[in-house]
From TrEMBL, chain A:
<feature type="modified residue" description="Phosphohistidine">
    <location>
        <position position="79"/>
    </location>
</feature>
<keyword id="KW-0539">Nucleus</keyword>
<keyword id="KW-0007">Acetylation</keyword>
<keyword id="KW-0902">Two-component regulatory system</keyword>
<dbReference type="GO" id="GO:0005634">
    <property type="term" value="C:nucleus"/>
</dbReference>
<dbReference type="Pfam" id="PF01627">
    <property type="entry name" value="Hpt"/>
</dbReference>
<dbReference type="GO" id="GO:0009736">
    <property type="term" value="P:cytokinin-activated signaling pathway"/>
</dbReference>
<dbReference type="GO" id="GO:0005829">
    <property type="term" value="C:cytosol"/>
</dbReference>
<dbReference type="GO" id="GO:0000160">
    <property type="term" value="P:phosphorelay signal transduction system"/>
</dbReference>
UniProtKB/TrEMBL annotation, chain B:
<feature type="domain" description="Response regulatory">
    <location>
        <begin position="16"/>
        <end position="131"/>
    </location>
</feature>
<protein>
    <recommendedName>
        <fullName>Response regulatory domain-containing protein</fullName>
    </recommendedName>
</protein>
<dbReference type="InterPro" id="IPR001789">
    <property type="entry name" value="Sig_transdc_resp-reg_receiver"/>
</dbReference>
<keyword id="KW-0597">Phosphoprotein</keyword>
<feature type="modified residue" description="4-aspartylphosphate">
    <location>
        <position position="66"/>
    </location>
</feature>
<dbReference type="Pfam" id="PF00072">
    <property type="entry name" value="Response_reg"/>
</dbReference>
<dbReference type="GO" id="GO:0000160">
    <property type="term" value="P:phosphorelay signal transduction system"/>
</dbReference>
<dbReference type="InterPro" id="IPR052048">
    <property type="entry name" value="ST_Response_Regulator"/>
</dbReference>
<dbReference type="InterPro" id="IPR011006">
    <property type="entry name" value="CheY-like_superfamily"/>
</dbReference>
Length: 111, 132
């Protein structure tokens, strides 16, 4: 596949993520920040976010695996993920964090 | 389209800002957003470093500070910065969204409470005001 076709495919993929609510306007703002002085900015910040998010999600899973869940410890991880996902425009992830905090508040491990 | 999204403004003065956020993604994004408007920025990832930097005499027009920070939290760091007699604009930018958090952060000394993400809609009027 040639470069132009790949770029089109990427553009369509990102567009579908906007349409599905996976990404929101905040991501558009970040795309707008990329210019000739920061040519790979979007890729770099996504990589940064994903690396940190993976660690946090692993911690969340680990916490949820315990018999007695420490909800306040869990909450601090979810809070951090909510902050970074909202900053990068990962809308669906941000909403999932809000839901998880809600369930956590209700001490509902199954939620 | 890019310019519309970023609500382009031209600042007449050289403004400086300190970004205090433990999360690298948030800190990098906030610094870059400020830099896109020509604001010179520094970033630290905990409250103690923020207080130390201000105490050393470095002046900023604007401080962006998160509520939850390691070593010294955002509320306490804000109080200590205000107690030093520093009157610059402070924005509390946090993922916390409750009214009690908002009141607590304002009581600690931030001028504005903003729920993350920090966006041009909130930032541009503040930069215009600081630019005079």
């Amino acid at each position: 596949m040639d470069l132009a076709a790949l770029k089109t495919q990427l553009k369509n993929f990102v567009q579908s993520m906007f349409e599905e609510g996976v990404l929101d306007n905040q991501f558009s703002q970040i795309q707008a920040l990329q210019d000739s002085t920061n040519p790979n900015f979007v890729e770099e910040v996504i990589t940064l976010f994903c690396n940190d998010a993976e660690k946090i999600i692993n911690e969340i899973n680990r916490n949820l695996g315990y018999q007695n869940v420490d909800f306040s410890n869990l909450d601090s991880y979810v809070h951090q993920l909510k902050g970074s996902s909202s900053s990068i425009g990962a809308n669906r992830l941000k909403l999932a964090c809000a839901n998880l905090r809600q369930a956590s508040d209700e001490r509902n491990k199954e939620g | 389209r890019k310019r519309q999204l970023l609500t382009e403004i031209v600042l007449r003065n050289r403004l400086t800002a300190l970004v205090v956020d433990a999360d690298t993604t948030c800190r990098v994004l906030e610094q870059l957003l400020l830099r896109s408007y020509g604001v010179q920025t520094q970033g630290v990832d905990n409250g103690r470093d923020a207080v130390t930097l201000i105490a050393s005499g470095v002046k900023f027009n604007l401080i962006i500070i998160d509520m939850i920070l390691p070593i010294l939290n955002g509320l306490e760091a804000t109080r200590q910065i205000r107690d030093m007699g520093v009157h610059c604009k402070m924005l509390g930018v946090t993922a916390c969204s409750g009214e009690s958090e908002r009141q607590a952060f304002l009581a600690a000394g931030v001028d504005v409470f903003i729920e993350k993400p920090l966006d041009p809609e909130h930032l541009v009027p503040i930069l215009r005001e600081l630019d005079g």
